[in-house]
Recover the amino acids of this structure.
């Protein structure tokens, strides 16, 4: 173990932050499509040209209710995290956790995560009931709570793994740990992209091959035309949880597969289903999962560097350092705040990538009418807000609005 040198640690943290920031900006400039729409900025289609007044009113009413519950849950969760991590009284709750440091870390993560979940559980239950009442969810209470428990256990495990890696570096390399931990955490982000389809997806859904038939044949031909090697086409049993429609491409190389929800197979005509699949194949063709992983890895460098700078100041004022497991609630509070603050950046990037996939899907299928019909059905089946508040879309919207995507199809149809 190297000797402590706060000034050397601070210099390493600054360099790590700058390297991560430069890498993030360079990767975003190089890999993110910042001008994906032919003809420039789009104006969303008029909602009443797509939906009836009754459909618009229903979607807006549900969306207002859902946003109120979601934002209230987020505010309460952040308040709990900040009280536990940013106040002496909150951090004192973690001062007597049993065991060695590598046991204390996951215990602290579990305590914080479970407290936040228990306190926000009423919001989650109310949102689930609202989705059931509107016909958007098919889950009974047992299935809902089963998914909730699995999600919490997964979150605790992943967060604990990341923090154990960072604390191990901080305890072993007292001066250079920000650079080493940042690089290690970035590697974990990249590895997670490869592990997720194999380990995580089966926890929440069961998959079976799409039977031979017109849809499977059309999907395989579309993948071949788009130059995307696909190993299989699978159907996920999403109908046991939701009535919404979706598809995605997961895996890499020889394990790449197209996954379609059974709700999509049963609920859309083939031409509309192919519009959804073409969008997902475009993500695979452009390597968008890899792009997101590289951006996440560089973001991890920035995050660890900033964390080291903040904790250096905390330690100078008598607080715990990163080698002390008592720092875990503080780290989790900072992580929660950072996630909220950086959401506009990550979601802006996501919307650009999703728009490019829409453009490619429209060109691949050459069927804007099917695309518009599909987007209309997606909106109706999910009760998505046709005109969300602009700041909400900026902060939380990972995809363009349905009316913006319809406007894109109308523009390309007229080209």
């Amino acid at each position: 173990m190297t000797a402590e040198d706060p000034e050397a640690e601070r210099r390493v943290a600054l360099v790590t932050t700058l390297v991560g920031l430069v890498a993030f900006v360079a990767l975003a400039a190089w890999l993110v499509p910042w001008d994906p729409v032919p003809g420039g900025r789009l104006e969303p289609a008029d909602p009443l040209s797509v939906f009836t007044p009754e459909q618009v009113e229903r979607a807006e009413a549900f969306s207002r209710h859902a946003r109120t519950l979601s934002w209230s849950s987020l505010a309460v969760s952040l308040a709990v995290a900040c009280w536990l991590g940013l106040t002496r009284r909150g951090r004192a709750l973690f001062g007597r956790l049993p065991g060695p440091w590598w046991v204390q870390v996951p215990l602290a993560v579990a305590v914080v995560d479970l407290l936040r979940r228990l306190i926000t559980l009423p919001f989650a239950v109310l949102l689930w009931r609202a989705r059931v009442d509107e016909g958007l969810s098919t889950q009974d209470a047992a299935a809902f709570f089963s998914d909730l428990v699995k999600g919490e256990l997964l979150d605790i495990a992943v967060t604990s793994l990341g923090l154990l890696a960072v604390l191990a570096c901080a305890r072993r390399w007292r001066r250079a740990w920000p650079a080493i931990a940042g690089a290690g955490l970035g590697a974990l982000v990249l590895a997670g992209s490869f592990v997720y389809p194999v380990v995580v997806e089966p926890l929440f859904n069961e998959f079976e091959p799409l039977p031979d038939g017109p849809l499977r044949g059309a999907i395989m031909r579309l993948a071949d035309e788009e130059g995307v090697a696909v190993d299989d086409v699978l159907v996920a049993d999403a109908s046991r949880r939701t009535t919404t429609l979706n598809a995605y491409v997961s895996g890499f190389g020889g394990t790449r597969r197209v996954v379609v929800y059974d709700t999509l197979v049963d609920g859309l005509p083939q031409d509309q289903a192919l519009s959804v699949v073409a969008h997902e194949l475009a993500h695979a063709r452009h390597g968008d999962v890899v792009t997101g992983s590289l951006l996440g890895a560089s973001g991890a460098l920035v995050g660890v560097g900033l964390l080291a700078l903040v904790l250096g100041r905390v330690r100078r004022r008598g607080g715990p350092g990163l080698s002390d497991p008592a720092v875990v609630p503080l780290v989790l509070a900072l992580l929660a705040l950072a996630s909220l603050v950086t959401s506009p950046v990550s979601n802006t990037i996501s919307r650009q990538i999703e728009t490019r996939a829409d453009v490619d899907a429209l060109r691949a299928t050459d069927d804007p009418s099917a695309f518009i019909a599909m987007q209309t059905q997606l909106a109706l089946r999910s009760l998505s807000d046709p005109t969300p508040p602009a700041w909400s879309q900026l902060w939380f919207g990972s995809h363009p609005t349905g009316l913006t995507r319809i406007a894109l199809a109308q523009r390309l149809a007229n080209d």
In short: The chain has a mean pLDDT of 91. The beta strands are 207-209, 232-236, 247-250, 257-261. The two ends are 65 Å apart (CA to CA). The longest strand covers residues 232-236.
